[in-house]
Design a protein that fits this description.
Helix content: 10-25%
Strand order of the largest sheet: 8-7-17-16-13-14
Shape: elongated
Strand content: 25-35%
Distance between the termini: 51 Å
Order of helices and strands: HHHEEEHHEEEEEEEEEEEEEE
Number of helices: 5
Radius of gyration: 22 Å
Largest sheet: 6 strands, antiparallel
Low-confidence stretches: 125-129, 132-163
Mean pLDDT: 78
Length: about 260
């Protein structure tokens, strides 16, 4: 079932079919979602490492008449649009800053049945009046992405202890992430120590346990799984040169000394 089909199915049961009455003869939510998808496609930007960044904030301007009719259902519709757009972005394996946000506003000057979609990459606090959908593993922000050393991050980062080997992960674009003794959680959420901007990575995707000698990688029940050298794993001891695949990100395990 496609994103559009899932969206339509959810709308059917929303507010006991009130949407069907509200949108009869005027703008339809599927048209809005189609326009949002086109905006994402039109505003793609290529990041380092080959990732594709698309807008995460979408402002929907409706005509005054449509806006007034929709007012009681605006929050519910914004939620459904945000969820479906997040699913669409995830299926394309695109990257976003933070959550997908949808806002529905009154567009003075628009004729009945007309609407306008404005898309942007939004990196600040969530604006008022919108709905943010953290679905489909959209990374919450690029915190840590431009901090290759990562020593300022808690609970798992830091210089290796005396006598321990220098263990690190190296991304395909050359970024280096040192691994400290203890546990390091890899993911996109606030609780992750190593945060990566990848729509295919779960909030708490995998964990690295390092005791000064052996390094063990454990999948934390992630949505898309964790691969080592092309094989899906639940837990495995890492060897130098092993290739770790999480989402669309490849990390090479390196050991110095």
């Amino acid at each position: 079932m496609s994103v559009l089909q899932r969206f339509e199915k959810r709308l059917e049961g929303l507010v006991e079919g009130a949407f069907a009455k509200v949108f009869k003869g005027v703008v339809h939510p599927v048209e809005i979602l189609n326009a949002m998808q086109r905006e994402a496609e039109a505003h793609k930007a290529i990041l380092a490492g080959g990732r594709t960044l698309v807008p995460n904030r979408y402002v929907i301007d409706l005509s005054p008449y449509d806006h007034s009719r929709l007012a009681p259902y605006a929050a519910a519709l914004a939620q459904e649009l945000a969820q479906s757009q997040a699913e669409f972005i995830g299926e394309q394996a695109w990257t976003v800053y933070g959550d997908v946000i949808v806002e529905i506003e009154r567009g003075d000057g628009l004729d009945t049945g007309m609407f306008r979609v404005t898309a942007e990459v939004f990196t600040g606090a969530e604006p008022g009046g919108g709905y943010a959908e953290p679905a489909y593993d959209a990374p919450p922000a690029y915190q840590g992405y431009d901090q290759p050393g990562g020593y300022d991050q808690p609970g798992g980062y830091g210089p290796p202890q005396a006598g321990a080997r220098n263990v690190r992960l190296v991304s395909a674009d050359g970024r280096t992430y040192p691994v400290a003794i203890g546990s390091t959680v890899i993911g996109r959420g606030d609780q992750a120590n190593l945060r990566l901007p990848d729509v295919g990575i779960s909030r708490r995707h995998a964990r690295i346990d390092y005791d000064g000698g052996q390094v063990v990688l454990t999948d934390l029940g992630s949505t898309n799984g964790t691969m080592v050298n092309g094989q899906r794993i639940s837990a495995v001891a890492l060897n130098p040169g092993d290739m770790i695949q999480i989402g669309t990100t490849t990390l090479t395990f390196r050991v110095d000394g």
